[in-house]
Design goal:
Acyl_CoA_acyltransferase, 4 helices, globular
């Protein structure tokens, strides 16, 4: 299993445990994008990037995420989990792509910084510190 497949498996295990699914929800596309099956209570599209683009290198990029039941802490919990995965596999940044007003507020609350007004990024170390100070 390559590193991207291992990350996919960790995300799948997290979602299965958190949302009480028995079957796998997540698959990895050939271009290293983690996607959640649409039949779930979670909609996830996550890019795994080692090279720079709009986002810095070594970045896990949340391109799309939503939960059927919003505003109960699922997003914050997922970013905390993703920060731990990022540290484990040597990623230095987490990004949020193409924000809308709700996701912009969410990103700024967690300490993400705007790259270009539409995309946000945070250092994983900063996120880990934020979550440690929260609890």
């Amino acid at each position: 299993m390559n590193e991207y497949e291992v990350i996919r498996q960790e995300i799948d295990n997290y979602l299965m445990e958190r949302f009480k699914y028995r079957l796998s929800l997540v698959y990895l596309t050939p271009d290293n994008i983690v996607v959640c099956r649409r039949i779930s209570r979670v909609d996830l599209y996550l890019r795994i990037r080692k090279v720079g683009s709009t986002f810095p290198p070594d970045c896990l990029i949340i391109a799309r995420i939503s939960f059927r039941r919003g505003r109960i802490g699922n997003g914050r919990h997922f970013v905390r989990f993703l920060s731990e995965v990022a540290i484990k596999y040597g990623f230095k940044h987490i990004g949020i792509e193409s924000v809308n007003e709700k996701s912009r507020t969410f990103a700024e609350k967690l300490g993400f910084q705007s790259i270009d007004g539409s995309n946000y990024v945070a250092l994983v170390k900063s996120l880990i510190s934020y979550f440690q100070n929260m609890y």
